[in-house]
TrEMBL record:
Entry protein name: Sodium/proline symporter
Main location: membrane
Gene: putP
Gene Ontology MF terms: L-proline transmembrane transporter activity; proline:sodium symporter activity; sodium ion binding
BP term (GO), one: proline transport
PROSITE patterns: NA_SOLUT_SYMP_2, NA_SOLUT_SYMP_3
InterPro entries reported in the protein's UniProt record: Na/Glc_symporter_sf, Na/Pro_symporter, Na/solute_symporter, Na/solute_symporter_CS, Sodium:Solute_Symporter
Gene Ontology, cellular component aspect: plasma membrane
Amino acid sequence: MSEHTWFILAIIIYMGAMLAIGYWSYRQTDEYDDYMLAGRNLNPFVAALSAGASDMSGWLLMGLPGALFVSGMSQLWIAIGLLIGCWANWFWVAPRLRSYSEVADNSITIPSFVENRVDDTSRVLRIVSSIVILVFFTFYVSSGMVAGGKYFEATFDAGYLDGMLIIAAVTVAYTFIGGFLAVSYTDAVQGSIMFAALILVPVIALFSMDNPADIWTWSTAHPYGPYGAEGNPDYFSMVKGVSILAIISNLAWGLGYFGQPHIIVRFMAIRGPRECRSGRRVGIFWMLLCIVGATFVAIIGTAFFGQDPSIAITDRDSYETIFLDMARILFHPLFAGLVLTAVLAAIMSTISSQLLVTSSALVEDLYKIVVKKKPSSQVLINLSRTAVVAVAVFAAVLAANPNDSILDLVGFAWAGFGSAFGPLVIASLYWRRLNAPGAIAGMVTGAVVSFVWGQVDALSSTLYEIVPGFIASALMIWIVSSVTAKPNKTTTDEFDEAVRLVEVSKQKPEMAMTTVHKKMKRGEVN
């Protein structure tokens, strides 16, 4: 069989497995809350891999190796910032958000949580947060579809548009039928595939070389990729030629974690606050080794491709197909096809998570506001499925003619969410004085500052837009909340209840969190 036939067979096996998980999840999903949040009973291992896979996306296997290959280790500041941000998110946000989202009228989306948290009866906060989700997730989903198109170009020598549409169709299919449970379990499988592939490809590539030690010198003194005879002398330097603002910008990617709806929604679905410790350990270990693997794909790739003129990287602009090309060259076509599914895994896990969150913004946070009669659970599920398809179609239109790299698209959306939601989520969980006017002002300010800053090349090229966006949002939350009326007693009592629920749940690991909450209300647990 030809190489392409083997690749197609591997992809069919992978796609079939994803659809099978989607069907299994469909059989487990009876209620709307199950479709949107898996009944708040998510295993911490699944939650950790699901959060990681939906977070990293095609950026980890395509964007990061490409950036490191072209620019050298100065790009690692992004990975360091993300690793720190991921740890902080699991440590500070996860336990309290799991507790507080249940206390705050059993909120199942981030917009509904922030509205219930500050008791915003005007519905403005919920509407604004839903609009922010719709705007920035459209770009985020588009970045995944762009990665999908590039994947098919590099792997099958097929058309970009054909590949983009195939990946979009299968991802929409299992998200459509299985909801949050399907997304979470497919993400866990996809995260495992990504992990194995990122370890396997650089190791095999290293052993396939005649002189493996060349990886430490080739990039600094030999031609490779975009560099001529002198190579890139500063390849291994993380600071040379890099300004302080550039380092701050790259580290600031870590700030974005606090405000990513598709990531922190996993915290709302996990079994309880006590499980967050296990989730944090699994998630950080997975992420650290994946980043190490992606880094060595780039380092080894300089010598791997530089020494052999008969092989080349397909993407000659941003070099984001380096991982795909190495796998294709190193392995038997069937095995290479299975390894290359890691990229599909990364792309599809992120798209599915984002589609589900976006559909929830349309249905849970916008549609339910305007309808007078509460729809049935089945009607809400069907509306959510329709929204998944609608958002996917719109994102596909944007991705049909990509003008930016995957990293640029992801960076824009990441900054938007981090600025709009990050400071608000932290304040919601840790500042008792937060009120509705402060929350609204902070969210709007963060989104606007990030969006405008990102559109001005002179500004965005100097400092990543999440930095001014995050700072402006945090300041506005503090100033406006401080000069306007204090939150009412019901709101502050709810805050105290959520904090207490975290501690009591940790002391009662044998009880489900919902049970602990009910016993607290009845005064049976201190």
